[in-house]
Amino acid sequence: MSDFLIYLRLGYDHITDPGGYDHILFVIALCAVYRIQQWRQVLILVTAFTLGHSITLALATLRLIRYSTDLIELLIPVTILITAVSNFFFRDRSDRSAVPAVTQPWRYGLALAFGLIHGMGFSNYLRSLLGREADILSPLLAFNIGLELGQLLIVSFVLAVSYVLLSLARVAQLRWVLIVSGIVAGMAISLLLDNEYLATL
């Protein structure tokens, strides 16, 4: 197997690894308010997140920016919690008495900004793999593509489950959004409480 495929697989495994589920939680929270019919909006949202984490993943891996690893590990669950809590303000558009759903441009900006933070988190793992390897551009590209493939798998799974529940089982969308976001928020709080850096502040 070529080095490119090895790093692609490593990127894919990294984001889909249940043991490191923080990035999975963020992606779930990010697309929880969408139906499968809104896949174009989800694609734009995921692209914004991809753009953000691709920038900082590249810069951090190439050592063009420096940051506190402990602080990033603290900020990642914060991004998950904020995204999940923002979903609590969602209102089903089919309910005429409801407040309109959260504005789309704001969600795209949130995904882009939080993608910058997650990119630095991804870089910690990639740099540990690269070691002193001279050529890192090809592994960086392959790893990033692997991340995106894994991310798209997670998004597809969430949208498929929402389709079954919302369109076939006729579950109210607001109930789905609140349950999923509540679970994600609870898990994000648990990650925060277990964070060693937070305990030292």
Question: Describe it for me?
Answer:
The chain is an all-alpha fold and about 200 residues long. The protein has one domain. The chain contains eight helices and no strands. Helix 2 packs antiparallel against helix 7 and helix 3 runs parallel beside helix 5.
Question: In a few lines, what is going on in this structure?
Answer:
The protein has 201 residues and is an all-alpha fold.
Mean pLDDT: 89
Broad shape: globular
Tally of alpha and pi helices: 8
Unreliable spans: 95-103
From the N-terminal CA to the C-terminal CA, the straight-line distance is: 45 Å
Q: In total, how many beta strands?
A: 0
Oligomer: single chain
Helix content: over 70%
Q: Output the structural class.
A: mainly alpha
Overall tally of structural domains? 1
- Compute the gyration radius: what is it? 18 Å
List its salient traits:
mainly alpha, 201 residues, single chain, HupE/UreJ protein, 8 helices, membrane
List the SSEs and their pairings.
Elements: H1 3-16, H2 22-31, H3 39-61, H4 69-87, H5 104-130, H6 137-168, H7 173-193, H8 196-200
Helix pairs in contact: 1-6, 2-4, 2-6, 2-7, 3-5, 3-6, 4-5, 4-7
